[in-house]
Write a structure and sequence with these properties.
Elements: H1 2-16, H2 24-30, H3 34-39, H4 49-70, H5 76-86, H6 89-99, H7 109-113, H8 120-137, H9 140-160, H10 162-165, H11 167-178, E1 184-191, E2 198-205, E3 208-215, H12 218-232
Antiparallel strand pairs: 1-2, 2-3
Helix pairs in contact: 2-8, 4-5, 4-8, 6-8, 11-12
Length: 245
């Protein structure tokens, strides 16, 4: 009865997102972590991993189409960089938080105790799996519009803060132009509960510390450290704009 109740809540949630025609079984799988299927001794296909694989491709195609049409003068390389950021776990997690999907995710008891449902990686995977489930069982044009509706504002944010998101690549390009060495990132502190950790990272070049930064994920901390380093090196100005050499 508990399962039936949670399944009905999930179905109502999907309807609230605007989808009336969809496969209940596929959507249920999209919100099911592999730890749950293992715990319940369910078939592998009942977890989200296969749907995540499909949804990743669906997401990339929708974003590619949008960027190609929206920015007709942008170069292929620039569009590729933007798309790479848009489809990242960091951005998908922001969408997941906006939609409030956490309560509908099924994980094992052990994973639940560790705060697994709150993890950026799991919520991002569920989003991709949901795209896969809806691609197979709902109106595909509606799905495309749904994806763009929930990501268009974030795309604008990325375009307005490209130097922040691309700081790691920018710093690497700089160090490689000076020598063969790459910047090195070192995790120096990790604190907080499993679902709400804070990471402190330092970035070095030729054994010299360039910057230190804090983030909610290791990747975010590295990104912020790289950005701070680029500012100190004079690659980015105070307005977060790239300085041409």
């Amino acid at each position: 009865m508990q399962s039936d109740c949670s399944d009905q809540k999930l179905n109502n949630f999907i309807k609230q997102l605007g989808f009336n025609k969809f496969s209940k079984e596929l959507v249920k799988a999209a919100f099911t972590h592999s730890s749950y299927t293992k715990e319940q001794k369910l078939p592998y296909q009942k977890c989200y991993e296969r749907l995540e694989f499909l949804g990743d491709a669906v997401l990339k195609m929708a974003i590619t189409d949008y960027l190609y049409t929206k920015y007709p003068d942008a170069h292929e390389g620039e569009l590729t960089k933007i798309r790479g950021i848009v489809v990242s776990d960091e951005i998908l997690h922001k969408v997941a938080l906006k939609l409030n999907i956490e309560d509908h995710i099924k994980v094992s008891e052990a994973e639940e105790k560790c705060g697994g449902k709150k993890l950026e990686s799991i919520q991002a995977c569920v989003m991709e799996a949901l795209f896969g489930a809806l691609y197979l069982s709902s109106d595909r044009e509606q799905l495309k519009n749904f994806i763009i509706k929930n990501l268009s504002d974030l795309i604008e944010e990325i375009l307005n803060n490209k130097t922040v998101y691309n700081a790691k690549a920018l710093l690497q390009e700089y160090t490689q132009s000076k020598s063969k060495e790459l910047p090195q990132y070192e995790l120096i502190n990790e604190s907080g509960e499993a679902h709400n950790k804070t990471f402190t990272v330092k970035v070095f070049y030729q054994n010299k510390e360039l910057a230190t930064a804090i983030g909610k994920t290791k990747k975010q901390a590295q990104q912020e450290a790289a950005f701070s380093a680029c500012q100190k090196l004079g690659l980015i100005n105070k307005n977060k704009e790239l300085i041409n050499e």
